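Reopening this ticket.

The earlier resolution said the output was attached, but the attachment link was broken on my side. Pasting everything inline this time so it's all in one place.
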Amino acid sequence: MVRERTSLLYPQRKITNPKDAADLFHQFIGDCDREVFCIMTLDTKNQPTALHEVSSGTLNASLVHPRETFKLAILANAASIIGCHNHPSGDPTPSPEDVEITERIRDAGSLMGIDLLDHIVLGEGNFISLKERGLM
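Inline output:
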């Protein structure tokens, strides 16, 4: 494994707000035609170390479980994670299921010492941060 100082895809190398995370996720899953749930693993300085696709679902659903989510985070030696999924409909309004899985992932991460910093829902050209909305 080689640690790069900068990335062509993400030159500022630090996540400072939800928009930074949403912009980075949008490059990878913004145009997907089905729901995809991903995590960004971060080091102790909130620098992204990896992006992982946890689950790819259907037009309006994606099966997400904390087990698979944190397997990737542990293997990446993450200090924290940010979750993200897209809504192919274009409307980023979080569903009750989105809020429920966010709480499950947050609680599981708390037990392992890996913080869930945010859950971003991407829509068509916009996003919603569950943390900013007070939903996590």
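Reporter confirms the inline version is readable. The longest strand covers residues 48-56. The chain has a mean pLDDT of 89.
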